[in-house]
Amino acid sequence: MQSYLNANLKPFHTFSIDQTCEVLVEVHSVEELITVYQSEEWKHLPKLILGKGSNMLFTRHFSGVVIINRILGKKVSDEPNGFKLHISGGEDWPDLVGWSVEKNMAGLENLAMIPGCAGSAPIQNIGAYGVEFKDVCEYVDILCLDTFKVKRLSRNDCLFDYRDSIFKHDLYEKSVVIAIGLFLEKPWKACNHYGPLKELGSDKLSSQSIFNEVCKIRTEKLPDPMQQGNAGSFFKNPVISKDLFDRVQAKFPDIVGYPCGETVKVAAGWLIDQCGYKGLREGGAQIHAKQALVIINADSATSDDVIILAKRVREAVRARFEIDLEHEVRFIGNKCETNLAEIVDNQ
Ligand code: FAD
Ligand code: EPU
């Protein structure tokens, strides 16, 4: 197991911003993961588990150990009522989706091209085009960091919600996801109710055709991190009360919102777009010209450029719509996770 001191994190996160960490180590097995957490040398250093770094903003040098999860392995069991997949946490999620579609194991196609590791998928319950991770999840295997024992959580145990799970709350920093169990039901049922997928004719519906369409839409709309650094949607779509939604809608009849129970989920991209912020630049950071919810590293952006731009967006949306945006991207500070409000308060 190789470790690197004062390592540059730029190749390890999709924003591609220059930032360093005290120690960087790549783990290939659960045993190596345990060794890192139990190491005498690194005992007093904070630790951060990283997949592909596609939901991360390193705001400063991280004075701790960044652990890159590369625990690999896939097992499939073909059962009468569905495929059961046991996938190690370090497997690449988009490769997994492409592979499953190619092998005629339908069910993951709507979640194509979401960068990241399989083990990161449960953390924010990844979702796109009408499907969330929770819809295909059977279990999540975790390494408990107090006992160093492996425990299996059922889908219900994970308390999945929109961009949320138990891993952001009760199990925060208490466990590492080492594997996931997926169940892809037979017979396959297409999920094509989301926006542009509706236009796919029923005769053309297959796991492969949905996969192709999702890839096409994503390629058109979202910037490729290999070309322009980014971390996908920078903010979550805010979930607001029906009362507030009705008040905002009275002033802005075109507002895009999706009812969820007593609340309404509002399209944050629309809100930012309405502020006229598409293409807005701050140093090397820029609001993407095709998708206002994405901040890109347009030209050697620093983390401060991104922070200043995110602050401007949040203030503009609040001033115009009385709606608070919460960032989806995880902000990592010098010793632990931080957030935009905390950084702004300390300035
Ligand atoms: P990282 O960014 O490395 O980590 C994210 C968080 O999870 C960190 O807090 C990290 O500490 C923690 N973590 C990572 N691995 C583990 C583990 N094994 N155990 C415990 N904690 C862990 N997201 C969507 O939901 N839908 C989308 O459509 C979508 N589109 C995107 C498009 C682009 C172009 C990009 C760049 C991002 C997009 N995202 C999307 C966000 C991102 O792909 C997901 O959040 C993804 O799951 C992150 O995986 P990762 O391996 O890169 O995680
Ligand atoms: N919109 C605008 N202007 C913009 C962007 C969007 O008006 O600049 C409008 C669109 O016209 C549409 C609505 O906002 O009416 C929603 O846009 P879109 O379908 O592009 O989806 P989104 O809400 O912006 C969410 C997820 C994405 C996911 C897509 C597809 C969040 C925060 N984002 O984006 O996930 O891929 O839906 O399901 O929930 C991510 O989390 O990183 C991510 C990319």
UniProtKB/TrEMBL annotation:
<dbReference type="InterPro" id="IPR016167">
    <property type="entry name" value="FAD-bd_PCMH_sub1"/>
</dbReference>
<keyword id="KW-0560">Oxidoreductase</keyword>
<comment type="similarity">
    <text>Belongs to the MurB family.</text>
</comment>
<dbReference type="Pfam" id="PF02873">
    <property type="entry name" value="MurB_C"/>
</dbReference>
<feature type="active site" description="Proton donor">
    <location>
        <position position="233"/>
    </location>
</feature>
<feature type="active site">
    <location>
        <position position="163"/>
    </location>
</feature>
<keyword id="KW-0285">Flavoprotein</keyword>
<keyword id="KW-0573">Peptidoglycan synthesis</keyword>
<keyword id="KW-0133">Cell shape</keyword>
<feature type="domain" description="FAD-binding PCMH-type">
    <location>
        <begin position="17"/>
        <end position="187"/>
    </location>
</feature>
<dbReference type="InterPro" id="IPR003170">
    <property type="entry name" value="MurB"/>
</dbReference>
<comment type="function">
    <text>Cell wall formation.</text>
</comment>
<keyword id="KW-0521">NADP</keyword>
<dbReference type="InterPro" id="IPR016166">
    <property type="entry name" value="FAD-bd_PCMH"/>
</dbReference>
<keyword id="KW-0132">Cell division</keyword>
<dbReference type="GO" id="GO:0008762">
    <property type="term" value="F:UDP-N-acetylmuramate dehydrogenase activity"/>
</dbReference>
<dbReference type="InterPro" id="IPR036635">
    <property type="entry name" value="MurB_C_sf"/>
</dbReference>
<protein>
    <recommendedName>
        <fullName>UDP-N-acetylenolpyruvoylglucosamine reductase</fullName>
        <ecNumber>1.3.1.98</ecNumber>
    </recommendedName>
</protein>
<comment type="pathway">
    <text>Cell wall biogenesis; peptidoglycan biosynthesis.</text>
</comment>
<dbReference type="InterPro" id="IPR036318">
    <property type="entry name" value="FAD-bd_PCMH-like_sf"/>
</dbReference>
<dbReference type="Pfam" id="PF01565">
    <property type="entry name" value="FAD_binding_4"/>
</dbReference>
<dbReference type="InterPro" id="IPR016169">
    <property type="entry name" value="FAD-bd_PCMH_sub2"/>
</dbReference>
<keyword id="KW-0963">Cytoplasm</keyword>
<dbReference type="InterPro" id="IPR006094">
    <property type="entry name" value="Oxid_FAD_bind_N"/>
</dbReference>
<feature type="active site">
    <location>
        <position position="328"/>
    </location>
</feature>
<keyword id="KW-0131">Cell cycle</keyword>
<dbReference type="InterPro" id="IPR011601">
    <property type="entry name" value="MurB_C"/>
</dbReference>
<keyword id="KW-0274">FAD</keyword>
<keyword id="KW-0961">Cell wall biogenesis/degradation</keyword>
